Fold this protein.
Amino acid sequence: MTVGKYSLEKKKHLSLSLFISLVAACGSETPAFQEKAMSALIADQQASPRTFETESADNTAASADATVATSESNAQTSGNTVQTFSGTTETAPDDGLKVDVKESQLRFGSQSTSISSMLDGEKTSDVTYTVSAPAGKDPGKIVGNSYVSPSVGTEAYEVKITAVSKTNPSQSSSTTVKLEPAAVVFVGCTNDAKGFPIKADVFTLPENTQELPDFATAPAKTATACMDSFQIPNRAWSDGFPGHPELIEWFAVRASSHINTSKNGKYYFKLNADDGAKLYIDGQLVVDNDGLHAQQAVTGQITLAAGDHELVMEYFQGPRYHIALELFWKVPGTSSFVYVPATAFKP
C-alpha cells in the first residue's frame, strides 16, 4: 500500500493558510502589517510550487496501521482467553461438563485408569459414568471413579466413557479409551503417553547390517511407536509397526523413557535380545549386547539414587522372523532378576 505525502512546499502552503487565519483573527488594528506579511508569504508560495510524492507505508502510515491493529487485537477475544485493560490475558473457565481419563490407552487384562469430571471449570463428583463398546465387544466396567479394561481381548478397539450430570441430565460429556491386546508390542502413541510411556523411534537399516547404527548420523526415522515395557520374549515377528506393517526385518529402534528407582544402591540389569541391544541410564552404557546374533542375555550394573533416571534402549533386528527384547533388574536388597515392571517407566 502507498500513501501520499506532501513535501516541504506542501508544509509552506499549510503554514500560509494558518497564518492567514491567525492574522484574520487579530482584527483590523494593523492593516499595514497584515498586508505586507500576507504578500510576502504569497510570493514565497508562488516561488515554491507544491509537489506531491508517494512512498511505501512503512513509516507514518505503518505506525498508524500498527496502532489500529493493536487496538483491534486488544478489543477481540480468542478461544477461552479474555483480554484485560492491563494488556495481560486471563484464562476463562470452560463452560459445561467435561470428562477426562488419566490414560487414554490401556491393554486388556483388567488394567485401570482413573476418571475425573469438570463442571464450569471446577472438579465435580455430581456425575454418573457409563461405558459402551462396539457391537459384540466387551466394554469393560466402571468401578467408582475408575475404568477397568476387559480381562481378555485379541483385537484392538475403542470404548466410550460418558459422564452425565446427576442434577442436570441434559449435561453430558464423553471421551474414549483405546484397548490394546497384550500380544501387540508397539502401539500408536497418544497425546498423554501415560499408559505407554516409552517412545520408540524406528529406523530402516540396510540389509546385512551387523551392529547397531550410530543414531546421531542415521537416516531420518521411518516411524514412531510407543511401548509400556521391555517384556518381549523370543517370538515370531510379523506385526511390523503402526503405519508400517511391512517393516519386520532390518530395522533399528531407539527407545527413550525414564525409570523410577525407589532405593539408593547398586542395580543389576539383564538384557536379553535377538539381535543386538544396548542399555543406557543417565547417559552411561550399562549393558552392551550388540551384534547380529540369536537371543542371548548380558548383564551389567550401575549405582543409582532413588528417583527418576533417563533411560535409552537401542535395539536392532536383522533378518526375519524372530525378535526378543527383555529387560530384567535386581534391585538393592533382592537376590533374583525380575522384569522391570511397566509401572517403573515414566514419559
Q: What stands out?
A: Residues 1-34, 40-93 have pLDDT under 50 and may be disordered. The CA atoms of residues 23 and 54 lie 33 Å apart. Helices lie at 8-25, 31-47, 60-74.
